[in-house]
Amino acid sequence: MKTTAETLNTVTFKQSYFLLSLLYYIIHYMHNYSAEDSLFIQIEIKKIREARNNAITFIMAIFLISFVILLYVFSDRWLATPDKRTVYHSPTISLYTIFLFPTILFTGLSWALSIKNQKYISVLQQLDSHDLDIYRRYTSVLAQRYAAIALYIFCKNELIFFPLFGSKKIPINQIKRIETKYVHNYRDTYSYHIYFYNDATKIYQTTMHQIAAFDFLQKQLLEENPNLTIIARNQIPSYLRTKDKPTHY
Which terminus of the chain has a smaller tally of CB atoms within 10 A, N or C? Predict the structure, then answer.
């Protein structure tokens, strides 16, 4: 068993490690930021982590509901079968199948969300004052329910996207042309597609569901590269356009 002195040494070491880690974070990431910018980043990180936890909680709820339904189906079949043992060896359904499939799905989605959020936070911490200003202006035009994690970030002359799996970095100087298209999905919902090209080849495409994010990306790319060519494959109706306020679609 550990003595009191050993226990105190362990606690002191953990406290020292925490303080050193915090000091490293402040020096490494916050040395170029004002107090206001530092607070803004901390708030954004908190929002991102809360959004991640809410998403994982939702996935867990779906997992439990699916598990209960599958267990009910199995139990119903088990009760209706005279020879109970044959149910366990059935090629179509088993206890292993009932438990394994939702578990793999839940674990995979939770892992993907955690990795995505960690990459997003890592990029957010690397923003200089110029890119952070772009990020602030961008998130300010988004509807609040989408503001936890933005679709893209301008960082060190790159445009970074965050799909569910992985991330996509596009050097801004490689984007020579973009093409845009809007799609009326159903009822009053719309999606906005952007296709990125270099000299002749499509290098990436993405879909957005807020016209504010769609417009901001085009305007910011034009600021970064005034020679950028923008081609609209179809015209967005004027009633979808808004000024100086976020839109909810």
Answer: N
pLDDT in tens, 144-192: 554 457 889 999 899 999 887 778 999 999 999 999 998 888 777 888 9
Residue with tokens 């159903």: 186
Taking alpha carbons only, the member of 34, 38, 44, 238 closest to residue 140 is 44
Assign 85 to helix, strand or coil. Answer: helix
Architecture in CATH for domain 151-249: Roll (2.30)
- pTM for the predicted model, two decimal places: 0.68
Going by C-alpha positions, the residue among 245, 173, 185 that lies closest to residue 215 is 245
The per-residue pLDDT for range 199-242, each reduced to its tens digit, is 889 999 999 888 888 899 999 999 999 999 999 888 877 767 65
Cα 105 to chain centroid, rounded: 18
SS3 89: coil
* C-alpha to C-alpha distances, 203 to 27, 162, 163, 169, 177, nearest whole angstrom: 36, 15, 15, 10, 10
Q: Match 């801004």 to its residue by tokens.
A: 172
3-state class (DSSP) for residue 110 = helix
Domain boundaries, the chain: 151-249
